[in-house]
Amino acid sequence: MSIEIRKVTVLGTGVLGSQIAFQSAFRGFDVTGYDIDDAALTAARGRFDQLAATYRDQVPGAGDGKAEATAAGIALSSDLGAAVSDADLVIEAVPEVLAIKQATYEQLGKLAPERTIFATNSSTLLPSAIKDFTGRPDRFLALHFANMVWHFNTAEIMGTPDTDPAVYQAVVDFATAIGMVPIELHKEKAGYVLNSLLVPLLDAAMHLAEGGYAEPEAVDKTWRIGTGAPAGPFQILDIIGLTTPYNILSNGDATSQRIAKWLKDNYIDQGKLGLATGEGFYKYTA
């Protein structure tokens, strides 16, 4: 028996969570975005409006008011129970801190209907580290999106040994339905495919800059010239946003924590969070 997904709730309306919500709504799904308070939801509404403008300019079929209608049609709530009360699929995009994710799922498992599938968008954590907190390990897996989902449209899908194969297939089908290219992993791997390749590059770049070996611009130039890539690692970091790598590095070893402090002191504390705020390693104009 196939599993139908029509109603989707996205937990966390930050840079990537808002994109997941918008893309799902753009492709015809009934979408609710959840965040912790009214201030976060106001910021989310602003992101949806920005995404509407981006889609109108860059995505085929987004003209004639469709992008604006998509933004307006996404429901928002700071009440977790209400947000998930009739969800077929909950996609979790809360901060990349294991304890926060575990606590979120402990609440979520008590509030969502039994049929609801839970999917974590975690970029580095294994779903097995979370599954026992969900109350439904057979209906839980990882669904990882890349930033700028309308352009970099992969969706990496990774279950645990407990994930029901029918649930896995339902999420593969959902990813296809919202215009993603499903990348199916056969077993758990921290970082999936994309970040297994990308994170070592970004870490090496930050080590070079934090250690005073080269400026970010020089690192990026070297990578672009040497590989033919369209963007260097610090340009990629600005697209991702500096908060996510900071959270990851802060929970790492001594070297990682030193680089996290460098990020915080020189960029995050200065309001330089990346492309979304107009400045990170580079300055951006609207």
Overview of this structure, please?
The chain is α/β, with parallel strands linked by helices and 286 residues long. It has helices at 15-26, 38-58, 66-73, 80-84, 98-111, 165-177, 194-210, 216-227, 233-240, 243-250, 254-266; strands spanning 7-11, 30-34, 75-77, 89-92, 117-120, 140-145, 154-158, 181-184. An 8-stranded mixed β-sheet has the order 3-2-1-4-5-6-7-8. Helix 1 links the parallel strand 1 and strand 2. The radius of gyration is 19 Å and the shape is globular. The mean pLDDT is 96.
Helical content (DSSP H or I, runs of 4+): 40-55%
* Strand order in the sheet with the most strands: 3-2-1-4-5-6-7-8
Q: Which residue ranges are poorly predicted, with pLDDT under 50 across at least 5 consecutive positions?
A: none
The gyration radius over C-alpha positions equals 19 Å
Principal-axis shape: globular
Q: H/E element string?
A: EHEHHEHEHEEEHEHHHHH
